[in-house]
Amino acid sequence: MFFYVSILLTGVLVSSISQILLKKSAMRKYDSLIKDYLNIRVVFSYIIFIFATFCTMYAYKGVPLSLGPVFASSEYIFVAVMSCAFLKEQLSKQKLIGLGLIVIGIVVCTL
Fold it and tell me: What angle do CA 99, 78, 80 make, to 5 degrees?
């Protein structure tokens, strides 16, 4: 099962990276509406989303359906950490408490 969980978490991580790329793209101004939606970051992000979807589908061969959403919730942690690193966003006390509760929930559900 560890192999399938690692594939699921890889898909979640890749999806988080895609979200950061979409946010970076949304922060830029483009000349036209087409460039707004068809620039390299957006197109690459959607390709990454497709890859993440296939990772998730494959992972469900070995991960019980009851645990899939539990591991998928780790995406909140990945996005928060990457937002701090790449978007220079701040983690407030409330966000840290929320992320801590997510980690506790993941641990409790997997045990």
Answer: 60
SS3 state of residue 48: helix
SS3 58: helix
Asked if residues 79 and 16 have their Cβ atoms less than 8 Å apart, the reply is yes
pLDDT at position 28: 86
**CB-CB neighbours of 61 under 10 Å:** 9
- Sign of the Cα pseudo-torsion (71, 75, 76, 78, in order): positive
Measured on CA atoms in the order 111, 95, 46, 10, is the torsion positive or negative? Answer: negative
pLDDT in tens, 63-87: 999 899 999 999 999 999 999 999 9
- pTM for this entry: 0.86
Q: Are 15 and 48 in contact (CB under 8 A)?
A: yes
